[in-house]
Structure formats: C-alpha cells, structure tokens
Amino acid sequence: MKIFIDQADYGMVNKGNIALLQMALHRLHDLWPCASFDVMTIGPHLLKLYCPQTHPISADGRHNWSGDREKLGRQHRWLPHIAWRSAFELRDAVRRFKNQEAAAKTKAGPKSRSEINPDVSALPPLSPDVQQGLRAADLVVATGGGYLCDSDKSRAIDVLLRLQQAIDLGKPTAMVGQGIGPVDDPQLRQVAQTVLPRVNFIGYREERVAPPLLASLGVPSGRAVMTGDDAVEMAFEARRPKLGSAIGVSLRVAHYTGVKKQHVEEVRAGLQRAAHQLKAPLVPVPISFAGHESDLSQINRVLAGYRAKTTRWSRFDSPRQLVRVAGRCRLVVAGAFHAAVFALGQGIPVVGLVQSVEYATKFQGLVDQFAPGCVLLPLDTPHIDQRLEEAIKQAWEAAPAQRPVLLDRAVTQIALNRTGYQRLVSLIRSHHAVSM
Description:
Blueprint: E1 2-6, H1 15-31, E2 36-41, H2 44-50, E3 54-58, H3 69-78, H4 81-105, H5 128-136, E4 139-142, E5 145-148, H6 153-168, E6 173-180, H7 186-195, E7 201-204, H8 210-216, E8 224-226, H9 232-237, E9 246-250, H10 261-278, E10 282-284, H11 295-303, H12 319-326, E11 329-334, H13 337-344, E12 350-354, H14 357-370, E13 374-378, H15 384-435
Helix pairs in contact: 6-7, 10-11, 10-15, 13-14
C-alpha cells in the first residue's frame, strides 16, 4: 500500500499543520500497517525530523529526492533528533542574520489573481518526483489545515488541482481534517466546484459552516462527514492528572486573522492585569514560525514587562512538545487556532481572540464542540482590555468544573475522527473491486 500525501505546510513551520500531518499518518498507519508514505515538502530533513517514517516529495518541482531516500534515511538514523534540531537552530539563526535587512525592504505577499490559473483543463505539468509518486499511489490524501478559504486561495487552488491530477490518473482521493470557508472568491469557487464533487471522501472539522458550503459546491452529502480536528487526540493523550497553574498565550498578526499591531497593546494590558491578580506565570504557545507571521514575535510583545514568564523556545520542537507546554496551563488565551485545540483537547479552557470573519468562523467551530469551555472575544469590542481581563478571571475560576466536560467533548471528537478514517478502508476496497 502506497499513500501519497499533499500537506498544507510544505515548509514545516506551522506546528498545527505538522500535528495534523502526524495524526493523519498515525491514523493511516493504523489502517494499513505496511503502508509507505510519500509526503510533499520543500524541507526534506525537517519532514524526516517530524515524520521519520515518510519519504519526501518535492513540492516545488525543483528536486527529485526519490533516489536519495536511503541516504536521507541513513542520515536520520545515525544522528539523534537533538543533533538535527541544533543544526536547524544554528542554520535558522544565520539565515535571520543575513536576511534581516532584505526582509525589511521587501515583503512577500500572497499571489495576485493574475498569477493563479483556475482553469483545470490547463493543469501545470507534474514534476518528475510528483508524477512518480502519484502514479505509484494507491491512495492520495490531502491532510488537514485551514487553507480551503479565500485568504489562502493560491494554496487551496494548488492542492485542488493536484487532487484533480490524481483523479484523472484514476486514484482514490481523500481530504482529512479540513477547515473550510469562507469560499466566496469566484476563481476559488470555480476550481472547488470542479474538483471537490469528485473527491471520494472529505472529513471536515466543524459542523456549522462546512456542510452547507460543501453542498453549495456540489459535493454529495454522503462523501463529506464531520471528523473534528485530527490533533484533538494528540492533546488528549498528553493530558495531565490535574490542571496547571500558568496562563498560555498565543497571538497572530496576519492578513487573514485581521489582528493589527494596535490590538497587541490592548491584549497585553488586559492579560497582564489579570495574570498579576491571579499570580499566574505566562507561557508562550506559538504555533506558526513562518517569518512573515511569527507568533512568537507577537507573544513576546504581549509578555514584555511581565516578570513571571517563560521566554525560551525552540523553533524546531515537535508539536507534542508544544502540547505539553499547553498542558502546564490552567487556561489558554488563544489567538491562533491550534493553540486552542492543544488546550481544549487536554481539558483546558480557552479564551479565543478573533477579528476576521475567517478566524471567527474557525473558532466558532471550537465553541460549538467545546462550550462552555471555549469563549470568543472579538478584538474590536469596546474596552477589549477590560473584557479580556474579566474573561480570563472567569475562565480561571471555572476551569476545574469545566475540565471533565471538555475531556468528554474531546472523547466524542476522537470517536468521530476514528470513524471518519475508517471510511477510507471501504473506499480502497470499492476502488479495487471496480478496478478488477
């Protein structure tokens, strides 16, 4: 059994997407213990660091790593993970030093509409690495993320067109752990309406928006099911016997979150007042380490001036290490989606900070699944610093009573997730029956 995986975070810089990839690999391995996995990436050594059982496939078409699989495998068997992490940290520090001035002068933005070709009849040619992987695959899977939306349209279209290529090759296809919507952009809708109805299975992570949106795109109802977020189980398995004593903090300033730099000072004021009154240390829970949207840089601004805080962090720690950090908390103030998932899955309540429609929609799915332990605060709320201070104190007091409820909700989500993945077994059996 050969499984080809198109994953959302080719650069391996978002811990949430890496967690989704790891959990998808775990689920698929449980279903097919002898399967081999080809995974698209632009960082083969990072992929092997986080997912050592996989084989890298060049996502940008510039390389062909299929001939170097044994070499990559030997390198990662010989050197321990701590050595690889140290090497990556050193390389990253050198790159930041060299590129600091250039980064200040130029900022890479999303592709313009003119750069995106939505015509699925004019697909780009497959790179040799991708072509080989797709042709050899018994199943093609797009792992989870929140990229099926207008703000990430270029990446969404790329993934959808690759699924179209797999479908044209006669391969069974699946999308798992998907956060979906909004999809109002005409080009994205055109591609989605062409490709999604032909995908054999879609597992989505929230119930309110995804079903009507997928129906409007022509997806038959029987092909799409609610599975929740794949990373809930990773968090649940790491839960501690009792709540921690810290307040976890995440925040993301990005075009798709709608969070502006002026919001950071308001969050800082309300958070630090509450933490001081509760005598709670503050702990960073960064999810994205991408240069243009580094969570840690914004979290450090929020924590500035507070004495009881943790400031050390390794960019190349695994998602499970980040989950354990969240487990030290009594509550998490989450401005990044998977910081909330990592907390809620461990029975830790969340105060979610939202601004854009897209992020409010994503977090509302968590509210639906984990209420009353997940509450949302729009950052344009008047006197947001005072509202945040009060919300933190309320969540702190309610945390012990809410923990068993949240853990029960996590168990429900895990059961839905496992049931959804079981559908893939029937999908493969049906495909083999038709092919014979």
